[in-house]
Amino acid sequence: MSYTIQAEIRTEIGKGSSRRLRHANLVPAVIYGPGKEPMSIKMAQKDIVNIQLNDDFYNTDLTLVIDGKEVKVRVQAMQRHAYKTLIEHIDFKFA
């Protein structure tokens, strides 16, 4: 199964800006990999919460649509809230 997620590049980086994003129901994330510059992005919490429950979400390539450009990635790590069903941060690797 393939997943396509809408995302945007984020310009503000740091603890305070990440907290503001989470308060606005957005998930901060980063994409990195060998030979490419890391990209800081943000995406809607509602887009991730349901599809991350599927096992193949972690094992297959995902498509992120960042400002109209498609980028293939894989989930490297995900931080979840301690007791709520929220995702706090996601690390992606270029596929």
Automatic annotation (TrEMBL):
Assigned GO CC terms: ribosome
Keyword set, alphabetical order: Ribonucleoprotein, Ribosomal protein, RNA-binding, rRNA-binding
Keyword RNA-binding attributed: yes
Positions of transmembrane segments: none
InterPro entries for this protein: Rbsml_bL25/Gln-tRNA_synth_N (IPR020056), Ribosomal_bL25/Gln-tRNA_synth (IPR011035), Ribosomal_bL25_short (IPR020055), Ribosomal_L25_dom (IPR029751), Ribosomal_uL5_bac-type (IPR020930)
NCBIfam families the UniProt entry points to: PRK05943.1
Stated role: This is one of the proteins that binds to the 5S RNA in the ribosome where it forms part of the central protuberance.
Protein name from the UniProt record: Large ribosomal subunit protein bL25
Organism from which the protein derives: Shewanella japonica
Annotated gene: rplY
